[in-house]
Every structure is written in structure tokens, then in C-alpha cells.
Design goal:
The structure holds 2 protein chains of 2 kinds. Chain A is α+β, with helices and mostly antiparallel strands. Helix content of chain A is 25%, strand content 23%. Chain A has 18 helices and 28 strands. Chain A has a 7-stranded mixed β-sheet with strand order 3-5-1-12-9-10-11, with helices on both faces. Chain A has a 5-stranded mixed β-sheet with strand order 7-15-14-13-8, sandwiched between helices. Chain A has a 5-stranded mixed β-sheet with strand order 16-17-24-25-28, sandwiched between helices. Chain B contains 6 helices and 5 strands; from the N terminus they run H-E-E-H-E-E-E-H-H-H-H. The chains are: A alpha+beta, B alpha+beta.
Chain lengths: 763, 206
């Protein structure tokens, strides 16, 4: 075992190398824009230079003169596509601001023309020769803009059902022995996956094939079909590998149907590779947020009152919010809780999911406030969490399915050397460097959604699993192969996994950390169907008694333990008895508490996620503890992060190697979010200024010296058959607060507006 | 940069000498060194929007193309030769996903014109393995789980090989610094450092 492949502890799978490893290191893995097209027209987008107003006219004369130009599509000649319904309102789209319909401009960077040419170079040149005359109006840019109005999210955003509250916050806060009131801000951020937002399409008669990086091939297929007015069965979305997504490739963006309609009109395949800067507007982003947190406590640290109010930016077109109060109001034992979420509309593109969407900004606020409270109480911040730890969430009184928060803090603290921390701020240093240790709780709701799979087993033990899952770098191929190998009792090398294709049985959007739990639970169930047939072949007269069910693993056996009989099933003998060479099973699985229409919705590309606080009778979360050491130069205020450590418990770990990598990436995302990342806005024009990878700061290798990940054993029998909580988003939730808490410990200065940058440090 | 192969002085600048000079090496970002003379011959009176003949030697094979003079090495590989292992992540030389080796040196293929890379040996991710055994750096990336989504990986591996050969893999700090031109948004950085360390001795001894 190596650092990269930690030895499995109890209730963990083997750290086998990635299923797709060889394809990825040899360049053979084909991403969407790698797919060959026959004589494609190259598309290049022209995007709006203003955020609000209208187009008066185009002058296309210079652009049309460029050799190789095939067509230039604007709102004046574009095909009228059907409107796209917002995903949050039961549709598929990331935004309802559909470009190329009218002369109106509703956001900077809105697509206003598409240039098609025989070569990429000609399309690019012609796009730069398109002249546009606008009448511009003054846009509302963000919270600071004049005349903004905040309105409650409740009632506006369908997904945001309620503002959690319990008890009597006002009285309790008034009477509290110790109080904290603090305001926090987080900046806009863009996902910036390495793979650009590309779309390649080809028609074959009435059938459309789309190669596009997608976290949800069924959603994209159905959404595009709706916009084009064709049968979804005529649309196929293929993307076996996604070059990073982090939420940006979850919902359908306007570009796809536009490119498909142009291709239909031209009778020619079309290839679009949107540029990096266009990507800041073509897809979504994490909008900026503001928070006010009030905490009241007894002198021993016990919380008596907690209030969290959040403000978020959305677009004019769509009411979007992340509403993280559903998590922050349930983190700690507190009898009096109040909350509210507000939305402020701006002339911007519609925000969307970005890695741990609600928890990153809202837990930053809560966990910073907890650190402020610990400081005021002269208490160790870990002990403050211990005093307020709970097995039941306070709002509905529902028990957690499992909660290993303090075990994570304790193991993490030990490995980090937390005991060496002097509680007094500005008390530790090394030469010119002030040293700070900070920690914070991290968490993420355990979520699952219905899925279907097809499993084929041959007499010689070779197996093939088909499911329209998505490989974003999460290890989906690998863990699905492991789930099937374990359940079918065949070597993992004999399992072929086919995913990333909307012609396969449906799987949910790869978001909200639901993929492994959903796809592996489904694959396990269908593998059990296969084993059941083999069992029946050997014992045709036996009904499936409980003993037999155990033998073939039928039913929702928790925690990924393959149920076994006393003797293993003799596969060869069973195939001989059946008289066939191959058996194939298809099955549809849905999590406990999923709505009645789950399976129909699933085939229509609509998601029915359950879990987190909305789980039947219980509340399901994964937990962890993040630790950060910072060093702040006492003269220059330069900040360095020599080490980060996270300890996590997330139910059954399918593969400690891929789990560790994903959590490590999450921790680094957290460091990036706290120290580097912010999309800067030009307040005058509602325009993203640093829309490229040189100016939008993401970490490079030199920024990240040491990252340690500790995986704790945890067995949760209440969540799903795979026993999996999911961990793609667990890593980067607590890091923002842990880092800024460490800055406070180093300098004595509390920085409540992210990112922490040296100009904000005054000490 | 190889200063001896500078383009000619501005007073004598014309399209032909520009291309000749560029092909001589001065155009390579990250300073690929030139080897051998250029054979590019384009009449200066030719319509500049017409395709031009370009021969690129990639992974030991010559590819004769007729392409727009503005085509980058990256787009030539991806759109015209069919080698899609090298990736486009920014097209601005900011991310490193397009890194290839030209005459053994790491070069950002999105900032390098195909015309200027004629008569040079280009090595891409597809050219590293003989199909039987992986290159030690490829194997190390697998062993150390030095990628997740895999999109930056071809560029990381090409860059890592050059990093070792340049003599910049002597310490973790050195590797981190000299691998910082390749962004990995999944943030596999500590594993990339481990992979470079694992492969370095075998690369240097082989």
C-alpha cells in the first residue's frame, strides 16, 4: 500500500487502480471534442459586450467576406426553438434566458451570433469581424448596486421549500450568557473545469448525436429534444469521459439546442469549442453570498440560540438559490433556531451548482461564527463542537443515520498535532512567520436518486455493466466495476463497464455526491437478479426463502457486504443447468422514500433526489473535520499554507484510492476558495473581468505542499444498499472556515470576507 | 530562446522571412530549441487566406497537411492529424493541457504555429508508449493516482518527462515549482509530485 492507495480499514473496498487509468495516461480516452466528425462546420460564438439593453443592428459584411464562412446566425435568422424550462421548475435548463430569440440583452456574454466556417481559424476571424450596435442600459451588478431589492427565497424558488426554525430564537438570544453576531461574505466563483464547454453534433436523418461533456446525459437528451420539438428517442448524448465538471455541466445550457438546430439547417456536423472566457457566461457559476449569523450560548459553550440569514444573487430570468440554511440550522444541538434566505436579482447570467453548492458559503459563515464563539468563551474550538454534538437534528428532531463528527475531530486533531496549539491568537511564530492553526466541521448531505442498469454475465465469469452514469474523474467506472465484481463474485478484471451514453439505462445527474450511492446500489441489485436466476437454475424447486435470498444476495443488504451462502454459488454448474451461455438482467432501483413517479421521471431525464434532511424518518449526512496550518509573514502579510489535513467518515468506502484523491482534491479546492478564487466584477458593466486562467486564480502545484487525508471506518445501515454516503463534495466544505480561522489564530484578525488576501490583513 | 536564430531585422521583415525565422525556433513558447534549417517556401504574393502545405513530423511519422497558415500545432494535431490526446484547456498558454515535446523540449502547442514546427520532431502523449509497455511516467501516474478527470493528464505527463530530463526533479519543492505550468483543476498535485519522483530514476537511467 502507498500513500495514494491507503490500506482499507473495516467496511472499505480495495484501493485498486482506476478502471480508466491506461486510457487516460495514453491519450486514448476520448472526451467530447475528441470525437471525430465527418467534415464539420466549425462554430465560433459572438457574445454580448453589454449586460443590459438591446442590439440595434449587426454589420456582417466584413465577416461574410472571410474565406470559408458558411453561415452567420443571429436572432434575425435563427430557427425559433421551443422555450427551455428552468431545471428548478421541473425542466432541464440552466437558464431560461434563451439567446438568439430577440434583440434584447439580459446578461454580459450572452450568445448573440454564431459564425460557421469550414475551418476553426476562419470562424474565429469572422466572429471578430462581426460588428454590433447596441443601446445599453445601466445594469444591476451585485449586492452593492443601487436600487437592488431583496426578496425571500421561500415562495420564489421551488426547490427551497422552507426556512427552518424551531423554538423561540429571539427570547433565547436576548437571554443568552454569551453572544456572537457577525456578517460574512463569499465571492462569485467559476468552476473552470480543464475541459472547455464544447458541443459537437451530427444528424443522421432525423436522429441526432450529441458529443458534449455532461453530468447528466438523460437530462441533456430530453432537454434538447424538447427545444428542437423532436422525440427524445431521436437524440443520443455520448460522453464516456468528462474533463472535470464540478457542477458546471449538470443542466442543459442554451448552446446545445442552438448548435443542433444550426447543424440540422446546414445538413452538416457542427463543432463548437467555446473559449475559456466565453465559458464564464456560457455556463453557470457560484454566485456571491452574504450572511449574518447570531449565536447565543451558555458559559459552558452549550448553544441556546442560533440564527442564520443568507443573501444570494440570482439573475433576472431565474430564481435560483442554494439555501444552505437547511444544513447550518441542523448541524448542532440547539433548541432555538431561526433562519431566512433572501435573493437579490441582478443583470447576470443565472448561477448554478458548484461543488458543495449550499454548504461551501453557508458552512463558512457558521463555522467561522463557531470559532468566534469559542474564542469569546476562551474554549478550544473542538471542545465547543463536542459540547454541541448531537445524534438528532434540532429542527424536526429526526435522528442522524450515523454521525462520526467527533471521531473525525479526534483522529484529525491527533494526526495534525492540534494539542501543540496555543489557544491565544498571535502566540505562535517561526522567525518572521506568524503561525496559525484552524479547524472546522465539514459535512455533506447523503443523497440518492433512482437509477437503472443492465448486467450481463457469461458462463466464464466475464461481466458487462451498462448504466448511463458519468465519469467526471470521480472514479465512477472503477467503483461500478468493483460493485459488480463483488456482487457477482468474479474478478474485477473481468468486468466491463459502459457509461456516459444516453442509450444506456438511465442514471441520475452526477451531482450532489449521489452517483456512487445511486449507481452502485442499482448495479448491486441487478447483479443480485443475475445471481437469483443462477440460484433458481440450481434449485428450481426451492422458493426463495430468507436463507436463499441471503445466498444470492437479494434484498437491500446494507454496507456493500455481498451476502454469501455457506458455499459459493457454482456459476459454471448453474449455467449448465440453465443451458445458456449468457444471462442478462435489467433492473430499476429507487431509494427509500423516493416519490411514486420516480422511474417515469428518471427516463424523462428528471431527477428525484432524496436524502440529507429530506430522508424518510431520519437525517443523513457525511461528516469530517478539516485542519489547516497557515503562515502569515508579519511584514509582507503573505499567506502560506504548509499543510492541510482532513479526517472523514462517509459510510462504506468503495475504493480508498479514488476516495482519498477526491477528498484531497476537495481540500485543495477549499484552500483555493479561501485564498485565491474570486471572479472579479466590473461594477459599472456587470462584466466578469478576470475571465481566464491567468487572472482567475486557481492553485498550481507550487501552492500546495502537504495534504493529508484520513478515512475513518463507518458503517451506516440506514442509507442505501451500497452503504455509501458519497464524498465528492465533502472535502471542500469546511476548508474555507478552517483556513480563515487559522488566519485569525495567526494574526488576531478575523477576515469575514473571502477570499483572504494579503491586502485584507492589517495586523 | 535561441538568440542566434532570431527573425531578421524589422527593415527586412516580410512574411517569408518571418516564417523562416519562426520555424528556426524563436517562435516556440517555453523555448524549444531549433534543429536544422527550414524548408518552408511560400510565395510572398500568395493570398494569405489560402491553405498552405505543411509537413509535421509527429511521433516518428510525417503528416502532409494543407492547412490555414494560422493553424496551431495543437489544432493541427487534433483537427487535421486526428491525434486528440493533446488537449485544449485555454488556447492561451495558461493551463498546460496542450503540452507536447518538440525536439525533446516541452512546448505549449496552442501557442505554436504548425508552420513553425516543420522539420522538428514532435512527440505527443500517443507517442510515448510502444503499445506493449507504458512509459515509466505513464505507469507512475497510474500508480500514484496522479489524475482524476484525466483532461490535463497528457500535458502533465509530457511536462513531467521534460521536467525530469531538465534536471528539475531533484526535490519535492523543485518538482512543484517546475510542474506549476500545468494546472490540474481536480487538484491531484501531491500525487503528481509523487509520480514524478517515482519515474525520475528510471527515466534518467534509461
Amino acid at each position: 500500500m502507498t500513500t495514494a492507495a491507503p490500506a482499507p480499514k473495516a467496511n472499505m473496498g480495495q484501493p485498486i487502480p482506476r478502471y480508466d487509468a491506461v486510457a487516460k495516461v495514453t491519450g486514448r480516452a476520448q472526451y467530447a471534442s475528441d470525437m471525430p466528425l465527418r467534415d464539420p462546420a466549425y462554430a465560433y460564438l459572438v457574445t454580448s459586450a453589454i449586460a443590459k439593453g438591446r442590439i440595434d443592428s449587426f454589420d456582417l459584411s466584413e465577416a461574410q467576406k472571410v474565406r470559408g464562412v458558411v453561415d452567420i446566425v443571429t436572432h434575425e435568422n435563427a430557427e425559433r426553438l421551443e422555450p427551455a424550462k428552468f431545471f428548478s421548475d421541473g425542466g432541464y435548463a440552466s437558464t431560461t434566458n434563451q439567446p438568439l430569440r430577440t434583440a434584447e440583452i439580459a446578461e454580459e456574454g450572452q450568445i448573440i451570433a454564431v459564425v460557421l466556417a469550414d475551418t476553426y481559424e476562419a470562424a474565429r476571424e469572422a466572429a471578430h469581424r462581426v460588428k454590433v450596435s447596441y443601446t445599453a442600459a445601466t445594469p444591476t451588478t451585485s449586492f452593492h448596486s443601487a436600487g437592488t431589492i431583496a426578496a425571500r427565497a421561500k415562495g420564489q424558488v421551488k426547490r427551497f421549500k422552507d426556512d427552518p426554525k424551531v423554538g423561540d430564537f429571539n427570547t433565547a438570544f436576548e437571554e443568552a450568557e454569551v453572544k456572537i453576531t457577525a456578517e460574512y461574505e463569499t465571492p462569485p466563483q467559476h468552476h473552470n473545469p480543464m475541459e472547455l464547454f464544447t458541443t459537437s453534433v451530427a444528424w443522421n436523418g432525423d436522429s441526432l448525436t450529441i458529443y458534449e461533456p455532461s453530468q447528466f446525459v438523460y437530462g441533456l437528451k430530453n432537454g434538447v429534444a424538447t427545444q428542437l420539438g423532436i422525440d427524445p428517442d431521436q437524440v443520443r448524448v455520448i460522453n464516456p469521459y468528462v474533463g472535470g465538471a464540478f457542477g458546471s455541466k449538470g443542466s442543459m445550457t442554451p448552446r446545445t439546442a442552438i448548435i443542433a438546430s444550426i447543424s440540422r439547417r446546414l445538413r452538416r456536423p457542427v463543432k463548437l469549442v467555446a473559449t475559456r472566457d466565453q465559458g464564464f457566461n456560457v455556463s453557470t457559476y457560484r454566485a456571491e453570498t452574504r450572511h449574518r449569523v447570531d449565536l447565543g450560548a451558555r458559559r459552558d459553550g452549550k448553544l441556546t440560540a442560533l440564527r442564520h440569514e443568507g443573501w444570494e444573487i440570482s439573475s433576472r430570468a431565474d430564481a435560483y438559490c442554494v439555501g444552505g440554511t437547511r444544513t447550518t440550522t441542523r448541524m448542532y444541538d440547539c433548541p432555538n433556531v431561526d433562519s431566512a434566505v433572501w435573493i437579490v436579482r441582478a443583470d447576470r447570467n443565472t448561477p448554478g451548482f458548484m461543488r458543495s453548492p449550499p454548504e461551501v458559503p453557508y458552512m463558512f459563515a457558521l463555522e467561522s461564527a463557531m470559532d468566534e464563539l469559542a474564542h469569546q468563551l476562551k474554549m478550544d474550538p473542538i471542545e465547543l463542537r463536542r459540547v454541541n454534538d448531537t445524534t438528532r437534528e434540532p429542527i424536526g428532531g429526526k435522528p442522524y443515520t450515523s454521525r462520526s463528527l467527533m471521531a473525525c475531530f479526534d483522529e484529525g486533531a491527533k494526526a495534525f498535532g492540534w494539542a501543540q496549539r496555543n489557544r491565544q491568537p498571535r502566540s505562535m511564530s517561526d522567525g518572521d512567520w506568524l503561525i496559525g492553526y484552524g479547524c472546522a466541521t465539514t459535512c455533506y448531505p447523503t443523497q440518492m436518486a433512482p437509477a437503472a442498469a443492465r448486467v450481463r454475465l457469461r458462463h466464464d465469469g466475464r461481466a458487462r455493466v451498462e448504466i448511463a452514469g458519468h465519469e467526471l474523474g470521480t472514479g465512477a467506472y472503477t467503483v461500478i466495476a468493483q460493485a459488480a465484481a463483488t456482487r457477482l463474485d468474479v474478478p474485477v478484471e473481468k468486468v466491463t463497464v459502459v457509461i456516459g451514453d444516453s442509450d444506456l439505462p438511465p442514471a441520475p445527474v452526477a451531482g450532489g455526491s449521489n452517483s456512487t450511492a445511486s449507481t452502485c446500489s442499482t448495479v448491486m441489485m441487478v447483479c443480485d437478479q443475475v445471481r437469483q436466476r443462477l440460484f433458481k437454475a440450481l434449485m428450481p424447486n426451492e422458493s426463495l426463502s430468507d436463507k436463499a435470498k441471503e445466498t444470492v444476495g437479494v434484498g437491500q443488504t446494507p454496507s456493500g457486504r455481498a451476502a454469501r451462502s455457506d458455499q459459493p454459488l457454482d456459476r459454471e454448474k448453474a449455467f449448465d443447468a440453465l443451458g445458456v451461455n449468457v444471462i442478462e438482467e435489467y433492473g430499476e432501483w429507487k431509494p427509500e422514500g423516493a416519490p411514486q413517479d420516480s422511474f417515469r421521471a428518471m427516463h424523462s431525464g428528471l431527477v428525484r433526489i432524496v436524502g440529507g434532511p429530506d430522508f424518510s424518518g431520519r437525517i443523513a449526512y457525511a461528516f469530517g473535520a478539516d485542519f489547516v496550518e497557515v503562515r502569515v509573514n508579519r511584514f509582507t502579510h503573505e499567506v502560506r499554507v504548509p499543510r492541510v489535513l482532513g479526517a472523514f467518515a462517509a459510510g462504506h468506502i468503495m475504493n480508498p484510492r479514488t476516495a482519498r484523491s477526491q477528498l484531497m482534491g476537495g481540500l485543495i479546492w477549499g484552500v483555493a476558495s479561501a485564498l485565491h478564487e474570486a471572479t472579479e466584477l466590473d461594477e459599472r458593466y456587470a462584466r466578469y473581468v478576470n475571465d481566464n486562467l491567468a487572472d482567475y486564480l486557481v492553485p498550481v502545484n507550487a501552492d500546495i505542499p502537504q495534504v493529508d487525508v484520513i478515512l475513518l471506518s463507518e458503517d451506516d445501515a440506514h442509507i442505501n444498499p451500497a452503504g455509501v454516503k458519497g464524498l465528492g463534495e465533502l472535502g471542500n466544505v469546511g476548508t474555507n472556515a478552517a483556513l480563515s480561522n487559522a488566519i485569525f489564530h495567526a494574526t488576531g484578525q478575523r477576515i469575514r470576507t473571502l477570499p483572504v488576501r494579503l491586502e485584507k490583513i492589517e495586523a | 530562446m535561441d538568440d542566434k536564430t532570431n527573425p531578421q531585422s524589422p527593415s527586412s521583415f516580410n512574411r517569408r522571412s518571418f516564417l523562416a525565422g519562426a520555424a528556426g525556433g524563436a517562435m516556440f513558447p517555453l523555448a524549444a530549441r531549433a534543429a536544422g534549417p527550414t524548408t518552408t517556401t511560400i510565395p510572398s504574393t500568395q493570398d494569405p487566406t489560402l491553405p498552405v502545405p505543411v509537413t509535421l513530423r509527429v511521433n516518428g511519422h510525417d503528416n502532409s497537411l494543407n492547412i490555414d497558415a494560422r493553424t496551431t500545432v495543437l489544432d493541427a494535431l487534433r483537427e487535421h492529424i486526428g491525434l486528440t490526446g493533446s488537449k485544449k484547456g485555454c488556447d492561451h498558454g495558461q493551463c498546460g493541457a496542450c503540452t507536447v515535446l518538440i525536439e525533446g523540449r516541452r512546448v505549449l502547442s496552442c501557442l505554436t504555429l504548425a508552420l513553425s514546427a516543420q522539420d522538428h520532431e514532435i512527440t505527443t502523449i500517443e507517442g510515448l508508449s510502444n503499445g506493449v509497455r507504458l512509459h515509466p511516467m505513464q505507469q507512475a501516474f497510474i500508480d500514484q493516482d496522479a489524475f482524476q478527470c484525466g483532461y490535463c493528464t497528457p500535458g502533465q505527463i509530457m511536462s513531467a518527462i521534460a521536467c525530469v530530463k531538465e534536471g528539475h526533479a531533484n526535490s519535492d519543492e523543485d518538482i512543484r515549482e517546475y510542474m506549476s505550468g500545468n494546472i490540474c483543476r481536480c487538484a491531484a498535485y501531491p500525487n503528481i509530485v509523487a509520480a514524478v519522483k517515482q519515474a525520475a530514476p528510471e527515466i534518467l537511467s534509461g
